[in-house]
Amino acid sequence: MERNKSVSLTKSQTYWLLQILGWSSIIFIETINYTFFIVGEFKWEYFQQFVLISAVGLLTSHFYKVWFIKEEVFGKSLSRIWFRAFVDVMIISLIMTVLLFFPILIQELDNFRNGEFWIGFFGQIMNLGRYVVVWIIIYYLYHILKKNAEITEQKLLFENVAKSAELELLKNQLNPHFLFNALNSIKALVLIDQDKARDAIIKLSELLRFTLNYEKSPLIALNEEINEVVKYLELEQIRFGKRLDVHISLQEETLEVKVPPAMVLTLAENAIKHGITQLEEGGEIWIESRIRGKNLLIEVINSGQLKKTFYLGIGLNNLQKRLQSLFSDKASFILDSISDTKVIAKITYPIL
């Protein structure tokens, strides 16, 4: 038993099908109009004239499209496109009228001096313009929508590529030195305290899994983010020991508020890298969250100094771009000194 095969038309076949159906509608509409409303009876000579008009319209519109309506027309502003469309309607209507009146002009050249001839000539331009304007509107709208779809698709493609590249960079922002130091600390723990070593390995594996998978969701709850930050800081405390104190103070109302994944983790990693590791005696990190009006405020404060030569690295630059992408100009990121011994990173954005 043979399966039914679906028939799909090519772009060219679809175009010609619509051309034939569209221009053939003149025959149907005008025959009905003349037969029932104007003349009151069917006349074969009128029907033949409508067939001729239909054929001339089909061929004229096709060749005009091929030779004069180029793709670059639809890359201009809408006002220029529709002005061009109006001009095309008049030109196509004029060409069709000239072709239809050409036999009359050849037979009787004196028609050039006949006022009634010119009234009929220009009247025919207006009459044919009714059909040409429909053709132009459909054709132009198709290409305008097609152009917009291509622009939108291209824009989305560029955005996806940019976001993918950004997320790939962000995934790699967990300092490789942290991973190396964490593994060394765990190696030392294995000989001293196997239980702590096992717990550290679990935290490290969970943290690495998080950094590899967080791009799957643009936003996660703050408490989920903080859970990973705590694991990171606990692993750093294995390395620093008593040289690192951590203080986390989160307003309860903020725990379920959505945040970009790894946002606080990036700030914590930056505080360790540029703050705590630069101090022989170590230091402290404070992580706080509060609601201010309709905004979420997150602050990460660390011991250290903000050097005049400091510049935002890939991680913080990408963090700014992510905030911009998600919240536009409503988000802010500030990195500044609050004293000679403390640096603050502050993020504010609207609560979704």
List keywords for this structure.
single chain, 352 residues, alpha+beta, Heat Shock Protein 90, 5-stranded mixed β-sheet, two-stranded antiparallel ribbon, 13% strand, rod-shaped
Name the helix and strand elements from N-terminus to C-terminus, one letter apiece. HHHHHHEHEEHEEHEE
Helix content: 55-70%
Radius of gyration: 37 Å
Count every helix, treating DSSP H or I runs of 4 or more residues as helices: 9
How many extended strands?
A: 7
Can you list the strand order of the major beta sheet? 2-4-5-7-6
Distance between the termini: 57 Å
* Structure classification: alpha+beta
At CATH's second level, what is the architecture of the largest domain? 2-Layer Sandwich
Mean pLDDT: 85
- By CATH, the superfamily of the largest domain comes out as Histidine kinase-like ATPase, C-terminal domain
| CATH structural class of the largest domain | Alpha Beta
Characterize the overall form. Answer: rod-shaped
The CATH topology of the largest domain is what?
Heat Shock Protein 90
Residue stretches low in confidence (pLDDT < 50, at least 5 long) are none
For the largest beta-sheet, the strand count, sense and barrel status come to:
5 strands, mixed
